[in-house]
Design goal:
Strand content: 5-15%
Strand order of the largest sheet: 12-15-16-9-17-18
Radius of gyration: 36 Å
Helix content: 55-70%
Number of helices: 18
Structural class: alpha+beta
Shape: elongated
Amino acid sequence: MNKDMKKPVRKKGAMKRLLAYALKKHRAMFAVIIITIIFSSMASISSSIALKYIVDDIITPAIHSGGMGAVWDKFIGFIVTMGCVYFVGIAAAAAQAQLLNLMTQQIMTDLRCDLFAHMQKLPIKYFDTNNHGDIMSIYTNDIETVRQLISQSLPQVLLSGIMIVMLFFVMLSYSIWLTLVVLAAVTVMILVAKYVGSRSGKHFMRQQKSLGVVEGYIEEMMQGQKVVKVFNHEKKAKEGFDERNDKLFDDAAKANRYANILMPILGNIGNIMYVLVAFVGAVLALTGAFNVSLTGVGVLEVGTVVSFLTMGRSFSMQVSQVSQQVNFIALAQAGSARVFALFDEKTEPDDGYVTLVNAEIDADGNITETSKRTGVWAWKHPHGDGTTTYTRLTGDILLDDVDFCYEEGKPILKNIDVYAHAGEKVAFVGATGAGKTTITNLINRFYDIADGKIRYDGININKIKKADLRRSLGIVLQDTNLFTGTVMDNIRYGRLDATDEECKAAAALAGADSFITRLPDGYDTMLTGDGANLSQGQRQLLAIARAAVADAPVMIMDEATSSIDTRTEQIVQQGTDRLMKGRTVFVIAHRLSTVRKSDVIMVLDHGRIIERGSHDSLIAKKGQYYKLYTGAFELD
């Protein structure tokens, strides 16, 4: 599957879901923010209303009386009143900014936490079929668009919406004729904004997708930088980046092409409206024509025209502000659609009800559950009749006629029969793609089988809770993953309640203790960048120590020594021999020398088991295993 290609993301309903999510825990704070917006809007509108008062009730009487003496008391009262109004407006705006910032950060924190928690429940298949850089882009770029929506676009739309409603009714109370002029210009502005928004929205979605593809490619190239340099593919890598970056440029250019022309057009329409209002208002005032308003019919005064001009300008500016936010809303809609697409990914199903518990066994062989760690485990199996039975975990694993396919119609495993007795070491060998690792992925239920049965101590693994199933399995993968933290932290990752002494014992068992003690700070040495300051072999030893501290009764060693030199392999082999003692072990290895002592060796070819037996019996048969072992036929 091309990981640059993902299933289409639906934008429909994304904004509604985002608003519902944002208000889920913050309705009270949002209500307070609305109140502060109303107060700040009223303070802003009062300045326009005040112009009518100051022109008609202060300036005009002062001109006619020849001085300010007659209106001085009115003037002082006006200054004090407006000072109080502006103080309330400033306080409301300041409170709004602080509350909005607090609410935004809380919502972003909740969103990232919920998204990460949901991601932990997704099946391995999701991460196998989606570019990791694209997933990271959801956490960074897409969530950033959501933050901008909540902190900037949404408050601006609310503020402008409230201002528009208030201004509309005030303007109607002044002059219906002038209000009609404003509404005509605003209608044109809305039509233009709608036209531009409908064309830019789809390009913003493509921009976000292309941004995710670019980030995914950068991550891939960073991880494979050594390979790029070894094969001198710098030019090829650059060409690949340029191709994806050019696609991002094209999508971003188309998205912003319409967005960038919107404000100049709206600004000029607003200027035309301003001139028309001034012209019509002047004609009505100078001719003494009847002015119709919500308050009645009368003569239009000069102060009303002056006040209306500022309100008309403010009205058009608020419409322009809303129109300008259309582009940011379109971008946020694209981002939120990708965020909720991740939320909508189906979580890993788990209908199991059998759990793993600490147990004690008395002299008669009866098993009882205990809260203390005893080193003895049992499966707790509740039944429909209300009874509960306990089955000791021994490590018997049976695969009975198992079929599996990653994609329907393309079988990977066919008629697989495996029986691993408790304490046995079972090895899988075969060419790359034969299905060795897939079998172990089915045992721990990273994937579910298409047909057949897998039983663990006689229990169908579908009945076992996945967390408990995986707790009973210790796994050492071919690709080692270490995490930022100390060496001790990385070993303890196998069992979080392990003591320092248990972690050191596990390291000694794996043969890692000798190199750890030589590190600058020993077990307290910090590891970063997936253990970049360690050799590949040392990283693998830590992974084995991590599995050892888990102390699981079943071990899966998937190419566990593939990255270790021969001398280190001998050290590890001694440790793993001790680790595997008394446990059921599944081993996958290209180095056939590591599987000679296995109880059963199974040779896979194209998803089928073609040979099985001990090393000696398979050598005696002189079949496929014999050819692999003697070098007559090499593994791919």
